[in-house]
């Protein structure tokens, strides 16, 4: 009888211990669910409360600076501006080691074809919605170079087209990648050039911003214009200088303005001093980007710096 009661007591203690373990695990899971988990809470600390950016003159750099002001939870965060190449190197290194990182990103861009990335939701709308890339030309271009004007006015392509040129340009020069795209997309190119008469070595200058998206469109336009007999010069500059160059007639055309938000301030500064031919690509986007393995979905998931 004594042995029976002893075993009964031991059994009770075992059941009680297991119950406490289950309750403890349940409480921990609840705390992780409510607080986002240790990984989520430590993201800011692990990356020194720093957003990795690109060149200071980029429209996305200005938007990111605005985000640090608009979002209370980004108080104390820093926006580290460097270069596109520097940002991509940091992103690649983080992904190789499966480490957290927050970068300023945009699409179209080959980074989305190369890595599994996602935009953080932007409830405040600081980075705007879906944008388009426009074509602007200097006043008088239609009269001076009607053939080039017609081609530039017709120049329209898809984000996938631009990304394919950018991706190919990782293995070759941008002009070679553009020539390859033109050769493989003659049906699209013929829509731009149908009925356009060739010219005899007429010079034309295309002004662009120094990023792969704009290098893609500018080089494709260069190849097509050169096939029509133009001598094309490409001039990369910061966005503010790009608008100024077209407004003053120092440059002939640009396929680089991101609208209606990214380059809005530059556009408004020179509005009326150039001709807007409308979008050449629809579906562009900017924002804060993270690797998909990071368990956050919104800018609001980032915690304030301590």
From TrEMBL:
Domain ABC-type glycine betaine transport system substrate-binding, which positions? 45-184, 203-303
Under InterPro entries, the record lists:
ABC_Gly_betaine_transp_sub-bd (IPR007210)
- Which molecular function GO terms apply here? transmembrane transporter activity
GO CC term (a single one): ATP-binding cassette (ABC) transporter complex
A Pfam short name: OpuAC
Tell me the domain of life: Bacteria
Name recorded for this polypeptide: Glycine/betaine ABC transporter
This protein's species is Aquibacillus salsiterrae
């Amino acid at each position: 009888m004594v042995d029976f009661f002893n075993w009964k007591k031991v059994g009770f203690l075992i059941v009680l211990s297991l119950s406490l373990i289950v309750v403890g695990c349940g409480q921990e899971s609840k705390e992780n669910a409510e607080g986002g988990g240790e990984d989520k809470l430590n993201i800011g600390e692990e990356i020194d409360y720093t957003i990795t950016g690109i060149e200071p003159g980029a429209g996305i750099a200005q938007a990111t600076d605005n985000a640090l002001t608009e979002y209370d939870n980004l108080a104390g965060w820093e926006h580290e501006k460097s270069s596109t190449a520097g940002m991509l190197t940091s992103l690649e290194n983080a992904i190789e080691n499966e480490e957290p990182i927050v970068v300023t990103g945009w699409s179209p861009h080959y980074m989305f074809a190369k890595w599994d990335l996602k935009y953080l939701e932007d409830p405040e709308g600081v980075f705007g919605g879906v944008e388009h890339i426009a074509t602007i030309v200097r006043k008088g271009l239609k009269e001076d170079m009607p053939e080039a004007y017609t081609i530039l006015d017709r120049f329209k392509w898809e984000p996938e087209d631009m990304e394919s040129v950018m991706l190919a340009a990782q293995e070759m020069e941008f002009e070679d990648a553009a020539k390859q795209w033109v050769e493989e997309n003659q049906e699209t190119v013929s829509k731009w050039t149908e009925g356009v008469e060739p010219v005899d070595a007429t010079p034309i200058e295309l002004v662009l911003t120094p990023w792969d998206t704009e290098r893609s469109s500018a080089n494709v336009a260069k190849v097509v214009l050169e096939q029509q007999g133009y001598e094309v010069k490409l001039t990369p500059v910061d966005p503010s200088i790009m608008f100024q160059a077209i407004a003053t007639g120092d440059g002939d055309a640009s396929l680089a303005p991101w609208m209606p938000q990214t380059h809005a301030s530059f556009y408004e500064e020179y509005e009326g001093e150039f001709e807007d031919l409308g979008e050449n690509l629809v579906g562009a986007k900017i924002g804060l980007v993270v690797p998909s393995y990071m368990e956050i979905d919104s800018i609001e998931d980032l915690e304030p710096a301590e």
